[in-house]
Amino acid sequence: MIRKLSISFLASSLLAVSAYSEEFYKLPPQEVIDIIDAPPLPRASINPTGDLMLLVEYESLPSIAYMSQPLLRLAGTRITPNSNSRQQTSFVTGLIVKSIDGGSEKRIQLPDQAKMGTARWSIDGQWIAFSVLQETGFELWVANASTGESKRLTGPDLNATLNSGFAWLPENRLLAYTVLKNRGQAPRNSNVPLGPNIQETSGRFATVRTYQDLLQTPHDAELFKYYATSQIQEIDIDTGKSREIGGPDVYSYVNPSPDGELLLVNRIKEPYSFSVPYYAFPQSSEIWDRDGHLVHLFADHPLRDEVPIRGVPTGPRSIRWRPLNPATLVWVEALDGGDPENEAPFRDKLMSQAAPFASPPSEITKIEHRYAGISWLQEEGLALLTERDWKRRWKTVSLINVDDANYPSKKIIDISYQDRYNDPGRTIFTTTDRGEYLVIQDGDSIFLSGSGASPKGDLPFLDRMNLQSGESERLFHCAEGSYEIFIDFVGSSSERIVTRYESKTEPPNYYLRDLKRGTRQALTDFKDPAPQMTGMRKQLLKYHRNDGVELSGTLYLPKDYKEGDRLPCVIWAYPLEYQDNKVAGQVRGSPSRFTQFRGTSQLFYVTQGYAVLDGAQIPVIGDPKTMNDTFIEQNVAGLKAAIDKLDEMGVIDTERIGVGGHSYGAFMTANLLAHCDLVAAGVARSGAYNRTLTPFGFQSERRTLWQAPETYFKVSPFMHAHKINEPILLIHGEADNNSGTFPMQSQRLYHALKGHGATARLVMLPNESHGYRARESVLHTLAEMFEWFDRYVNNKPSEENSL
């Protein structure tokens, strides 16, 4: 049975409706509110020594009052001036330490009603550092994992604008970024301008993305410097004593060398740019001693506003300390000018230089494709080098020896990075007592944990792979009908592991598995946060597009569904791009996972009696340079294939179908309404609808507007607003910070629809970004979604009545 939508209003706490149609926040049915307000399941983190588990409790959703606090949008980031931190929309509320072997647990002592930011294990795994929000800023606290006792190390003066505000050092020391003492009031902006704000270019090719929240005025630049400037301090957690390192500056990160004697410091320098975010500003990579004295200027990085789309800057990048060496830097440099469109036998080269940096840098190896990371093994000199060919969507991982030029490089992985069925998994790391991350070795073997994607859905695994033979031994494999994933090893043994297990009806919980004995012991007993949804039906659906491409999605049906009933249906999707038909058709996700209803999830439609096909595959397949030429046709074909399958099963009423999506899914939704008549209505959230406003590319589109104007016009729903003849609900955060999805995108499409007599509704959510976080915004969004499809899908007006 279809439930009628009930809507109530928060009239007691809100202002009267204004003349320009500002409305009260709506509420969805109570059963949905109860699910939204239920405490979310805790997260878990294993300590570096593998004997303790940290259970992290966190709040469900912040209030709109919190989201409405003063906010500065500067240099591509969002700063909360009251707390001198990057805007944070989720807070930790409790910490519990649990012994993996003994099962005993201890709750960390916290201030009353504490709201915490980041919580991190110490390198030795015996302490936990975390930040606590106070009225004027974040304090740094530390807790003893054995006793649960905690203490404050600083006042509310952490500076977390460009990072978390702190990091662990060896020997139970902490590195903190703090607000300057007596820094004075923030720069004030005069209401009387001194003159116009001017930018100028001449002969420079800067094809930058459509970034949001950039600096706009000199006053913005002053504010960014004021809030981002910090003083580095080293704190001894035993005594609480601190000492300053270096002077105040705008630091993005500080990393100690493995021997602890040097620091790799990255400073952001002026002049700041008005066209790119702060991380592309001029920067300086420097080597300091422990007292903050400059030892070596490693690199001066210029403004990076001319980096090609999908390219990399020239000069040193990805600068890191090499593990198991006292103080050796490793980095990469481009050999193709940083431009992926340039032909070159090698894209990058891997470089190295050891302290005291008097000798010239040495080249370790040339890299055929673009460098994508290096993972160091426990055996000194050995490393796994990852490179990616973006044009082919290909990933290669090779075993190399950085100390032996005669060591033959050996390809370990060489596949499409979109090929989930053949993905061997991710390498498993351990941490040394100096905080170095190393790939765990067992002789010539390493360990890999993978999703285990298959035609039946994900069946996660743990493998031991021999690097010499390339053969793998399966140590653990999830059983069908459930979803169980490897989390970490227990201690130094590879025979005991922690896993997270869940099924359709069982919420995620953590278990201790003994692989040798074949036993499993529960470590947690989290309960179902939404037991009222128990019995909801869920199944993997597989079908074919008209050109033979295999597709899939997950079908959800209400728990009281009766065979033969044809329900109103919601199809929710997000288009993805592929080069290969077989890879595009691979099943993604697992039908055996526990369903968690959070935020503005489209799955809430099930509570209202709808069938929901979630994650319906809408692939766009072809040559990466031209695939978007057939974006519309492939979107329509994917939608029709899903509808035909659901109709064949007899579970939907084909006259009552709604389609929806978020971001690129919203772009898809508007296009479907413009170019086919397969659905009754649509919901499009936080989308971009006019591609002339993203002229240097979008998603994986390589061509610019000037290179492919016909395609940009063809795929822009704004250009076809006169063809959208089904009702469309547009929802957008007024403070959307996602590249390309300006709030103006929804506003302009609404104006175009209104000008052509279409049925449309535009909902602009105050103080919300690309995703919606405030409780009031989430509940209102769900109410709007229910109401729209209840009116135009479930109770679709007949053509006769709509004339």
What is this structure, in a nutshell?
The chain is mainly β and about 800 residues long.
What can you see in these coordinates?
With about 800 residues, the chain is mainly beta. About 15% of the residues lie in helices and about 35% in strands. An 8-stranded mixed beta sheet has the order 38-39-42-40-44-45-46-47, sandwiched between helices. A 7-stranded antiparallel beta sheet has the order 12-13-14-15-16-17-18. Strands 27, 30, 31, 32 and 33 form a 5-stranded antiparallel beta sheet that branches. Strand 19 (about 315-320) and strand 20 (about 330-335) form a beta hairpin. Residues about 1-20 have low confidence and may be disordered.
Topology:
Blueprint: H1 30-37, E1 43-46, E2 52-58, H2 64-67, E3 72-74, E4 77-80, E5 85-86, E6 92-99, E7 105-107, E8 116-121, E9 127-134, E10 137-144, E11 150-152, E12 166-169, E13 173-178, H3 218-228, E14 229-236, E15 242-256, E16 262-268, E17 283-289, E18 294-301, E19 317-321, E20 328-334, E21 348-354, E22 362-367, E23 370-376, E24 382-389, E25 394-401, E26 410-416, E27 426-427, E28 429-431, E29 437-439, E30 441-442, E31 445-450, E32 461-466, E33 472-477, E34 483-489, E35 496-502, E36 509-514, E37 519-522, E38 537-544, E39 550-557, E40 567-573, E41 576-578, H4 581-584, E42 611-616, E43 619-621, H5 631-649, E44 652-662, H6 664-675, E45 681-685, H7 709-714, E46 728-733, H8 743-755, E47 760-765, H9 775-794, H10 799-802
Helix pairs in contact: 5-6
Main β-sheet description: 8 strands, mixed
Low-confidence runs of at least 5 consecutive residues: 1-20
Q: Give the oligomer, counting copies of the same chain as homo and different chains as hetero.
A: single chain
Overall residue-averaged pLDDT value: 93
Number of helices: 10
* Sheet with most strands: strand arrangement: 38-39-42-40-44-45-46-47
Please give the share of residues in helix.
10-25%
N-end to C-end Cα span: 29 Å
